[in-house]
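FAQ
Q: What does a multi-component entry look like?
A: The components come first, one per line:
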Amino acid sequence: MPCFAQVGNRGAGLTRLDVFIDRMVSQRVCLDYAIQATADMPGPVYELGLGNGRTYHHLRSYVSARDIYVFERAVASHPDSTPPKEMTILGDVRETLPTTLQRFGATARLIHADLGGHNLSRNDAFARVISPLIEPMLALGGLMVSSDGMYFDALTELALPPGAVPGRCFMYRRDRWQLRWLTSIRSDSYGCASPEMRRVRAAGAGVKQQI
Amino acid sequence: MPCFAQVGNRGAGLTRLDVFIDRMVSQRVCLDYAIQATADMPGPVYELGLGNGRTYHHLRSYVSARDIYVFERAVASHPDSTPPKEMTILGDVRETLPTTLQRFGATARLIHADLGGHNLSRNDAFARVISPLIEPMLALGGLMVSSDGMYFDALTELALPPGAVPGRCFMYRRDRWQLRWLTSIRSDSYGCASPEMRRVRAAGAGVKQQI
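Then the predicted structure of the entire assembly, as tokens:
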């Protein structure tokens, strides 16, 4: 078979298929980096937006399903990629993120968000709304991987790992705390809990003691 | 930033995200090959299954939209990737493929099919049903790119171009005719037509004269 060169000039005019492939490849590269970089952290992983469940399936292959909480309005994923009910947090993330912060505190080791749709300006507006809700949930050293650029006050935006395409995925890390979050997290959110919750919360408390 | 190795062993346990990326990358590699290999052929291009419209957008970036007929039950594509009405053939492909064969004959230079869903055995059964409907539509030298393995009598299955992953995409070429199709294509299907249709049909007739 003759080996043809790539059709056209990708740099000059990317097709929607090109952009989509770049986005999926970048998402995997960033997730793989984040999974490995946070592997020794004890907190939970949050998957914001389940959709078809492909990235959940990917996360679950490397992180225990008992550690992955999935935030979704209504589950409509592939049967192979459906989280257990007790790990599914149903509802609008504008409501479920704050209640989960109350429940678990700033303990998340990895948060992945792929909540956007086709409308880029609407995605951007939504990223502005949820950024302040996501930011206080991340543990010190925790990573956030997002398909959209986010608007964080105190997280460090990271250069993407090799193989990811800048602009197709975004990665952030908590390198420091902001005092106002520490005082705004109600102390009673560390009350009664299952053994798993106690483990998660203890991990969060452990991190805080290092401040 | 430290450079981590890939998480896990992809070969031993591909995730659904891995498989999906392989499928999309292979689809693009095969389409690019097929677009270039058939660039000098005069017949139409058939896109079977529009979906979100990403591969249609890709095809349209390299092939005139006036040459691409899209087969779909109901159009629900991205606004940037919606074909003109006159190029959209609405309905069940089990009905629209035979009527299009009557209309244009064996003239297609490139047929791309991505009709499968999540259920692999159902995809395979559907591939068996539509293979004999697709096969007679392809011009001599024409290529068929499919996300599912097809069941053709006389098309040559090609090795995939470099960069494509075997099993994630399939490519076939018409290298010879089968007599029963030539006799089964009604001669009156070359009747009245628009200038464009006449051009397409003349191209098909031209190919037949070379047999």
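Q: Is there any commentary attached?
A: Sometimes. For this entry: Strands of chain A lie at 45-48, 68-72, 88-90, 108-113, 138-146, 156-157, 170-173.
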